[in-house]
Amino acid sequence: MQTRIQRAHKDENKINKIVDSVLRQIFGEQATSLIYEYLENNYSLKRNEIAEKIDLFAKGLEEFLKSGAYAVEKKILEDLYSNYGLLRRLELERMQRQYDFVGQIKLLTRKM
What we know:
Largest sheet: none
Number of domains: 1
Number of helices: 5
Oligomer: single chain
Structural class: mainly alpha
Shape: globular
Number of strands: 0
Low-confidence stretches: none
Helix content: over 70%
CATH class: Mainly Alpha
CATH architecture: Orthogonal Bundle
Radius of gyration: 14 Å
């Protein structure tokens, strides 16, 4: 039987892996490394802390990528929802209308 802390840690690891996978798919190894370096240097945010500090990650990503961050965040959300079996057309349409990356991640972690 998993404790609440163990489940939270497992969920954070899953989120961190999905974020990493999306960044690597979109930008490749070198650019992803630059993004992580930027986040660590400017926000003291390590790769393994992204899920627990998602608001800081979003702020740093938006500062680094400007308007391009929206597409990356949307892909992260799509992969997370898909991974948890929650990807439904209606949910995606709602996400697009009321876009809030941090809020969606926090909502998702509460559903798990």
